[in-house]
Design a protein that fits this description.
- It is a single chain.
- The chain has helices at 6-28, 32-36, 41-61, 74-77, 82-94, 101-109, 129-133, 218-227, 241-247, 271-279, 314-323; strands spanning 67-69, 119-127, 139-146, 149-162, 166-174, 179-183, 192-193, 207-209, 235-236, 253-256, 283-285, 306-309.
- The chain is of the alpha+beta class.
- The strands form two sheets. A seven-stranded mixed beta sheet has the order 1-2-3-4-5-6-7, sandwiched between helices. It has a five-stranded mixed beta sheet with strand order 9-8-10-12-11, sandwiched between helices.
- Helix 3 crosses helix 6 and helix 9 (241-247) runs parallel beside helix 10.
- It starts with 5 loop residues before the first helix and ends in a 5-residue tail after the last helix.
- 49% of the residues are buried.
- Bound molecules: adenosine monophosphate (AMP) and magnesium ion.
Length: 328
């Protein structure tokens, strides 16, 4: 029984919503010119700002919990980062977290754990940075892991559509208590339960995968789709919004197929989304059918790739992956 996670859920939801609003503000300021210049500074500033807001709240409410986050403040503390630091301080202040340079860097560095422990959080302050820069999908992902089990998973998805309220979804799951969504901007509206699809016919499957062919092998998923006689177009999307798409039944499976031997998936790229799919009735394993092992520090060192499905088609999908292993 995990009644005790009510406080964690409330703090996590508030912090992720706050960070998502910060990210939205920065993303709305990205111009065609800054994109043409391949200027990554908006995502850098929003990344630090998001981690600062969330870690500030976690440190205040749960000071003993380590946080394995993607970012650290070393770049901001260096002389060359002074300009970024000023922007991050201003953003944090605008979003209700005014602090000195030392305080804000301290919040960010609170997310600097990397070792496994019996209870910790993992945070990706902006997952899908490429999507963020293209003004497409990205997510803020936060999860609480206790004794290797994901107990709480939260995704802020500022550009995913929420039924009847437009863009912006806050989605979460607590182990044993289902998966839920709410409009990001209207926290007063009731949360609604989300469920995976009922699709069983392989030809009806909607596959979802990364936009970036460097993050998941598109040629390999093409072979799998052909093997399953999938007739519907593949949904390409950045970030853990793919897990939300499967959890809500918009896609039936999410494939993450290794593009190179030895790449270790990062826990913050998965933990939040995985629990959403599981609690929505789906299944998540690596591409060999093994459960994802969140006891290995900051990576999924014992797993290769990921397959997340509506649950019903999981065995069929795993067999298709096995039949279509790319050579090499
Ligand atoms: P996505 O938006 O699904 O393409 O995933 C974005 C995440 O991919 C980033 O947060 C990175 O941590 C991760 N990533 C970076 N390089 C690789 C790689 N070679 N294979 C898989 N994931 C990667
Ligand atoms: Mg990421």
């Amino acid at each position: 029984m995990n009644q005790g996670f009510k406080r964690e859920l409330e703090a996590g939801l508030q912090a992720v919503r706050q960070a998502a609003l910060l990210c939205r503000q920065v993303q709305s300021g990205i111009t065609t010119e800054s994109l043409a210049k391949q200027d990554n500074s908006p995502v850098t500033v929003a990344d630090y700002g998001s981690q600062a807001l969330i870690c500030r709240r976690l440190r205040a409410d749960f000071p003993a919990d380590p946080v394995i986050g993607e970012e650290g403040a070393a770049e901001l503390r260096a002389a060359a980062g002074a300009d970024f630091l000023q922007q991050v301080l201003q953003l944090c202040a605008e979003h209700g977290a005014a602090g000195t340079a030392d305080e804000v860097c301290g919040w960010i560095d609170h997310g600097g754990a990397s070792q496994y422990s019996s209870r910790f959080w993992t945070l990706d302050p902006i997952d899908g940075t490429r999507g963020f820069l293209r003004r497409e999908q990205y997510a803020i992902s936060l999860a609480l892991i206790v004794n290797g089990q994901i107990e709480l998973g939260i995704l802020g998805c500022p550009n995913m559509e929420c039924p009847s309220s437009g863009p912006g979804v806050l989605a979460w799951a607590v182990r044993g208590y289902g998966a839920w969504q709410q409009p990001l901007l209207q926290s007063e509206l009731p949360a609604t339960a989300i469920r995976t699809s009922g699709t069983t016919e392989p030809s009806d499957l909607v596959i979802c995968e990364s936009v970036e062919s460097g993050h998941s092998a598109h040629d390999w998923s093409g072979l799998i789709a052909a093997d399953l006689t999938v007739g519907r177009p593949t949904l390409r999307m950045d970030s853990q919004c793919k897990y939300l798409a499967v959890a809500r039944g918009e896609a039936d499976l999410y494939l993450r197929l290794p593009t190179k031997k030895g790449y270790r998936e990062k826990i913050w790229d998965h933990a939040g989304g995985v629990l959403l799919v599981l609690e929505a009735g789906g299944q998540v394993t690596d591409i060999s059918g093994g459960l994802l092992d969140f006891r290995q520090g900051s990576t999924l060192a014992l797993n290769e790739g990921v397959a997340a499905t509506n649950g019903r088609v999981h065995p069929v999908v795993l067999r298709a992956i096995e039949r279509n292993h790319l050579p090499g």
